[in-house]
């Protein structure tokens, strides 16, 4: 009898172990082993256990092709998460690793290939596309997270923490509302400080002190939660009649608006996409939105500052242009309205649509079309962890007809869908690549644009990593073209996932390695760095609610001289809305206790030495980026650390 040494590793999360029967069969080119029950004295397959067994074969099996695992119920059903199986041949030798990293549910049989094997004994979750709504990317066919396969669900610790933190935030919210005044307006801006209990952060407190200052407004356009809107203004829009005389007092000495336009120092943020979006009704009261245009100037001494704001797309007597030398309350209210539009755009477009929903397309197509041993599956899997469940929860709890947005956000209900549909119509594949995005917006020379600098460094590191990994498995362009599973995968992405978006610009076939590398870099960059840039700072910028209000309860001002503090307080969110905005942005923006940082791969899908070398180089590059960012921020009063690699999650999990 030939005796093989088999090692089986059970998952490390809670409830990963099982008391069910586990059988193994080794299959080689020359035959297969006995079907062997894995049973040692004592308990087998406990959480985190690595158990060793002997498996016999009446004759040499030759090169091993696969390991067949079977789970059968013993008394009660008990699911099992298997990390991997290793097999050491008779007489010693190099052990082969068979990555699994999946749940075995019910009476089930699973066949897994060795980690370096390129062909496909597949295990693919049965996933179907559905349209949550027309005019946005398709998603997984699951009404709630309970409909998802166990392999893509939160583990029990993640689920407990997610639900527990939400309950904690809502409890504090309830205490605040009881302690203050439910549903009432604040008396003055200082009253908002009464919400700063345990839920606060150093940046949120800094924001509270500096939010009225023009330089801080400009800083957030560069490094806040929506840093992708600002664009160079070469010529003033026809519907934004700003004259040189209007802004002369905001410019440096001995210059003019025309000179600064030609010099490339004038920038624009245009919220035209907000124009005419349906507004919410909260507790029977209408809410309001605006579609502002904001002109900014890169001042040689003051940095980027706003110099003119128009709160609508159609100029006229009722749509005045607000200026820094206007009455202070009028200028402050104009900036508040811009920041209110910023909340809608960053939450629904920059965050939800351009990271969560976009990455979900890659999740579904990967589960549908790629076997678990495919190198692209193994490359993407760690960057798709938990994304399907958090998106399902978002659709049922956040942006549903009765979700949190409907309760507190001015575009809640119909408006959020209209806004997303408008953005999706003009979404382009190229805009997801940061180097092209900054060039297209003319934002390549702005000073102190930390988001740009850090995201480009991360893009280069991710692109180099992906290129190295792909080169391990695809030697030439024809290898890509002739991979039928890969071609079916990209076709599913382009024709099913990103449906009805003619300007997107993604081909339904991959013609060479370069195209594959770029596509995978987009997927990984979006699920890591881009999501971190928009998600991780949302509590910092939104906790002081006047800085980024979720809704406005009064129409935009039509007379600059008529703006009063009472008008501002009647416009800003009331006590209940303020508390809920703070609670939900804390819940969604806080660091996750089970976070896996970018570049860390606890699930070792790749076993080849060449692949491990590429991963090691990637980690070294991320470490260098980390050191650069820390050095750059040393001593800064307002540090930018959202793209610190150690603070970027490997996937969208929140």
Automatic annotation (TrEMBL):
Its main location: cytoplasm. Ca(2+) 1 binds at residues 17, 78. Residues 2-118 form the PLAT domain. The gene is alox12. It comes from Oncorhynchus kisutch (Coho salmon). One of its GO terms (biological process) is lipid oxidation. This is Arachidonate 12-lipoxygenase, 12S-type-like. Gene3D superfamilies: 3.10.450.60, Lipoxygenase-1, Domain 5, PLAT/LH2 domain. Fe cation binds at residues 351, 356, 531, 654. CDD domains: PLAT_LOX (cd01753). Belongs to the lipoxygenase family.
């Amino acid at each position: 009898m030939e005796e093989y040494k088999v090692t089986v590793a059970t998952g490390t999360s809670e409830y990963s172990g099982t008391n069910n029967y586990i059988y193994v069969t080794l299959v080689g080119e020359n035959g297969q082993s006995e079907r062997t029950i894995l049973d040692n004295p004592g308990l087998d397959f406990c959480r985190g256990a690595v158990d060793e067994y002997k498996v016999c074969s009446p004759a040499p099996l030759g090169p091993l092709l696969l390991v067949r695992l079977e789970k059968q119920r013993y008394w009660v059903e008990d699911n099992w998460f298997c990390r991997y199986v290793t097999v050491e041949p008779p007489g010693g030798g190099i052990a082969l690793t068979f990555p699994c990293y999946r749940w075995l549910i019910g009476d089930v049989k699973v066949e897994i290939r060795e980690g370096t094997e390129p062909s496909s004994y597949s295990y693919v979750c049965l996933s179907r596309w559905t349209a949550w709504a027309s005019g946005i990317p398709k998603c997984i066919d699951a009404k709630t997270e309970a409909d998802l396969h166990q392999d893509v669900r939160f583990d029990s610790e993640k689920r407990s923490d997610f639900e527990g933190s939400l309950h904690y935030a809502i409890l504090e919210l309830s205490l605040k509302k009881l302690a203050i005044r439910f549903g009432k307006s604040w008396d003055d801006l200082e009253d908002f400080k009464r919400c700063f209990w345990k839920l606060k952060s150093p940046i949120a407190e800094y924001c509270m002190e500096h939010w009225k200052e023009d330089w801080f407004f400009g800083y957030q356009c560069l490094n806040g939660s929506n840093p992708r809107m600002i664009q160079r203004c070469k010529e003033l829009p026809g519907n934004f009649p700003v004259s040189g005389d209007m802004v002369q007092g905001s410019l440096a000495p001995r210059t003019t608006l025309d000179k600064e336009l030609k010099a490339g120092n004038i920038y624009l943020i245009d919220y035209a996409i907000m124009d005419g979006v349906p507004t919410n009704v909260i507790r029977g009261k209408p809410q309001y939105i605006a579609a502002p245009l904001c002109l900014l100037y890169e001042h040689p001494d003051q940095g980027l500052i706003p110099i003119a704001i128009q709160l609508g797309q159609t100029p006229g007597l009722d749509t005045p242009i607000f200026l820094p030398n206007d009455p202070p309350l009028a200028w402050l209210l104009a900036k508040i309205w811009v920041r209110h539009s910023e909340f809608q755009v960053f939450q629904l477009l920059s965050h939800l649509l351009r990271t969560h929903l976009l990455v979900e397309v890659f999740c579904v197509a990967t589960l549908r079309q790629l076997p678990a041993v495919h190198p692209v599956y193994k490359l993407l899997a760690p960057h798709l962890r938990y994304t399907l469940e958090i998106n399902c929860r978002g659709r049922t709890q956040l942006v549903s007809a009765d979700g949190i947005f409907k309760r507190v956000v001015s575009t809640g209900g119909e408006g959020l869908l209209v806004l997303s549909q408008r953005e999706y119509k003009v979404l382009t594949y190229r805009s997801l690549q940061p180097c092209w995005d900054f060039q297209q917006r003319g934002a390549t020379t702005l000073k102190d644009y930390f988001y740009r600098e850090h995201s480009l460094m991360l893009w280069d590191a991710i692109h180099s990593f992906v290129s190295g990994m792909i080169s391990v498995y695809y030697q030439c362009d024809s290898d890509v073209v002739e991979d039928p599973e890969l071609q079916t995968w990209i076709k599913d992405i382009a024709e099913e996932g990103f449906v009805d978006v003619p300007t997107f610009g993604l081909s339904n076939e991959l013609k060479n390695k370069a195209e594959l590398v770029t596509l995978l870099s987009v997927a990984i960059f979006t699920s890591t760095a881009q999501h971190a840039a928009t998600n991780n700072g949302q509590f910092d910028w939104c906790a002081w609610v006047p800085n980024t209000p979720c809704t406005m309860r009064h129409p935009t001002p039509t007379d600059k001289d008529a703006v009063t503090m009472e008008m501002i307080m009647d416009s800003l969110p009331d006590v209940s809305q303020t508390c809920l905005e703070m609670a939900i942005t804390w819940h969604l923006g806080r660091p996750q206790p089970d976070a896996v940082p970018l570049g860390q791969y606890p699930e070792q899908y790749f076993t080849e030495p060449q692949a491990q070398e590429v991963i090691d180089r990637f980690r070294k590059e991320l470490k260098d980026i980390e050191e650069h960012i820390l050095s750059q921020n040393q001593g800064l009063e307002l540090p930018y650390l959202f793209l610190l690699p150690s603070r970027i999650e490997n996937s969208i999990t929140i």
